[in-house]
Amino acid sequence: AMKKMYKACVKYPEWKQKHQPHFKPWLHPEQSPLPSLALSELSVQHADSLENIDESAVTESREERLGGAGGEGSDDDTSLT
């Protein structure tokens, strides 16, 4: 998993230049398509009150999710989003 993450990070600057280079909602919240929430609507949750979620059966391979399509080196919009 770490090798795939490293590979994606190395390729990100080139990919971003081709895919909406000025769209950066993490820097410019006004670009975010998600609705804003008022802080008064949020509540603090402590770890002991959260449900344990078993992710042991979740696969990390993109090829498995897509049935082998979109292999490495793919230049589609979903490869780094």
Give an account of the 3D structure:
It comes from Mustela putorius furo (European domestic ferret). This is PCTP-like protein-like protein. This protein is mainly alpha-helical and 81 residues long. 27% of the residues lie in helices and 0% in strands.
| H and E order | HH
Largest sheet: none
The percent range for strand residues is under 5%
Number of strands: 0
Distance between termini?
Answer: 16 Å
Assembly state (oligomeric):
single chain
Instruction: Tell me the structural class.
Output: mainly alpha
Q: What is the global morphology?
A: flat
Which secondary structure elements does this structure contain, and how are they paired or packed?
Blueprint: H1 2-18, H2 62-66
Search tags:
0% strand, 81 residues, flat, mainly alpha
Structure summary:
The chain has 81 residues and is mainly alpha-helical.
